[in-house]
Amino acid sequence: MLAIFVGGGGRNSNEETKHMTSTATINASLAHTMDGKSMTFFQWRAIGLCFLINMLDSFDAMVMAFTAASVSAHWSLTGAQLGYLLSAGLVGMTVGSLFIAPWADRIGRRPLVLLCIVVAGLGRIASDYARTPTHLGLLRFVTGLGIGGILASSYVIDGEYASAGAYERSSRVGFVPACDEAGINCAPN
């Protein structure tokens, strides 16, 4: 397992070096080409969609925190049970970010984000019909899986579509993570 992290897994070092060099050359060439151009409507739209998707996901993550008192009262949950219920979505987000988001390199970012939107959306809708705290916790975990896949992938999409000079790119890349606070502020108080 350690060999994978230090460069010894799968390919020999010469193959790995050639692959990394050719990929770096292509990425540098593409970045150089995009740096000289202003952003198109398509690029702005892609970044805007990433912003909205992440904002809705941040809102969703905060909903359980804001409804915790009424959920706890409805099902007569102890503090520990409520803690597990609130953590289910966050655990799902972690698992989704670590194990689902890397699939984007295999199947593409757009298909993965769309799949994760469907998973998160179905999990959210099904959460409304949960009959027990365990059922709600499992549905929040599933919703978190989708959100985790979306978050990691959308940040990469944002970075790929942001063009212009180094300062402008960093400003635009920072735009999407700012949606977390926007989504949290839209949550009910």
Describe what this molecule looks like in 3D.
Keywords: Membrane, Transmembrane, Transmembrane helix. GO terms for molecular function: carboxylic acid transmembrane transporter activity. With 189 residues, the protein is an all-alpha fold. It has two domains: 1-35; 38-186, MFS general substrate transporter like domains (Growth Hormone, Chain: A). The protein contains nine helices and no strands. It has helices spanning 2-5, 13-35, 41-75, 79-100, 104-107, 109-127, 133-161, 166-173, 179-186. Helix 3 packs antiparallel against helix 4, helix 3 (41-75) packs antiparallel against helix 7 and helix 3 packs across helix 9. The protein starts with a helix and ends with a helix.
List the SSEs and their pairings.
Blueprint: H1 2-5, H2 13-35, H3 41-75, H4 79-100, H5 104-107, H6 109-127, H7 133-161, H8 166-173, H9 179-186
Helix pairs in contact: 3-4, 3-7, 3-9, 4-7, 6-7
